[in-house]
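REQUEST ID: PR-0412
SUBMITTED BY: lab tech R.K.
PRIORITY: routine
TASK: structure prediction, single protein chain
INPUT:
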Amino acid sequence: MKLLCYVCCLLVLVSCNINGEESAVKKAVTGNWIILYPDEAALSQQQLQNYGPVQDSLVRLYGLRLLQFKKDGSFTEPDHYFDAPGSWELFQDKKLIVKSALPGFELYIASLQSYKANKLRLLTTIAGNNDSLPIFWVLKKIESDDPANELFAEKINRWRKHPANAENETELKARLKQMLEWSALYFETVANEAIYFSPGRVVLPFNYYAHAVFIKPLKNAPDFAAAFYNETNAMQALQLLNAARTKLHGKYPQHKSYVKEYARHFRDIAELL
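STATUS: complete
OUTPUT:
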C-alpha cells in the first residue's frame, strides 16, 4: 500500500470520560502531550498485514513526539520552539482541526475517541490506493506537576534559537549544556512512559548502544551542526563535548534502563562544561 503524504484523522467520541460540553473537551485537550505508540491490538489480521510496510515510517514521524495544545488555541512542539506556532480548534461536533507547518500536522482533522487516566486515544485513517488503514494512536498527557513540563519551557529550549554571530567557548559551553539538559530530561520522560526510544528525537551527536554511547563524526550529525552558527563553531562544540566525556572515562552510569543511563550520562557531561 502506497502511503500518501498526508494523514487524515476521522475519529468518534465514545468514552463517557469526554462526553459533555465543548468546554470540557477543550480542557481535556489543552496541555502538554507525548505521543506514545500506535496500538495494534484493535487491528484485524488483514489490517496488520497492511500496517507492516508503513509501521516504521509512521513511528519515525509521530512516535515519542512532544505536542503542546495551548489554551489560546496555538499548537507547537519544542523542536520548533521559535518557529511560528500552528493552531488548533474544536467544533461542536467534537472535531479537532490542527493547522501548522509541522511535519504530519499540516492539516490534521481529528476527534477524540477516548480519554482515560491521562491517556488520549486517537483513531487516524491513512489513505492508500483505493483503501484505508486505521491507526490507533495513544498519547499521554503530562500532568501539571510533572518535571517533563520543563521540556516545553523557553529557558531549556534557548539553544534552539540559531545564534546571530559566532560564539566563544563560554557561549558554546552554555549552548551545549542546555542541549544536554533538555535531552536528558526528554530521555528520562521517555524511559518512564514508553518501552522504546527514538534517537532522532534529540540532536546530540551520539550513536547509542547497550551501556554505552559513542560520538559521531560531525559530518554524520547534521542536526547537531545546524544548532551552531557555522561549521567551525560546531566542530569546537564537538571537541568540548568529547573533552568532557574523556574526563568521565570509566564512570559511565549503570541502570537497568539503557535510556536512563543515557540521560544520566548527559547530565554528567553537562556538569563538566
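NOTES: Residues 177 and 244 are 11 Å apart (CA to CA).
REVIEWED BY: pending
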